[in-house]
Amino acid sequence: MLKYHAAALVVLALLATGTARAQAPLPQNNPAAEANVKQSEQYSALLRSNPAFRRKREAIECGPITDPQLHASCIASFEAYGQPVRERPAPPSETVR
């Protein structure tokens, strides 16, 4: 029984320290971090809106990968950004003749 109490105390201590770390405030007013976030948002927006940019990034990032499974996984990672705007099918109002 004493072993279980000791184990429970260890688990509680680990949970308490993990919670304290998880609730630590993020740094504020860090220009480098803010610039990084802005650049990431711009990159993501370009992947979504510019098919040529997306194809170029796919070629740069996935082209050198020779393993077929890893290459397919790399290409699939770009799908997280959705289908580029210009490559989406046209609405019916634009396709009816």
Topology:
Layout: H1 2-22, H2 31-49, H3 51-62, H4 68-77, H5 92-95
Helix pairs in contact: 2-3
Can you walk me through this structure?
The chain is mostly helical. It has 5 helices and no strands. The chain has a domain at 33-83. Helices cover 68% and strands 0% of the residues. Helix 2 packs across helix 3 (51-62). The longest helix has 21 residues, at 2-22. It is extended, with a radius of gyration of 24 Å.
Distance between the termini: 81 Å
| Beta-strand segment tally | 0
Strand content: under 5%
Helix content: 55-70%
Low-confidence stretches: none
> What is the count of DSSP helices, taking H or I runs of 4+ residues?
5
Instruction: List the secondary-structure elements in sequence, H or E.
Output: HHHHH
- Backbone CA Rg: 24 Å
Globally, the shape reads: extended
Structural class: mainly alpha
Largest sheet: none
Mean of all residue-level pLDDT scores? 76
Question: Can you summarize this structure?
Answer:
With 97 residues, this protein is an all-alpha fold. 68% of the residues lie in helices and 0% in strands.
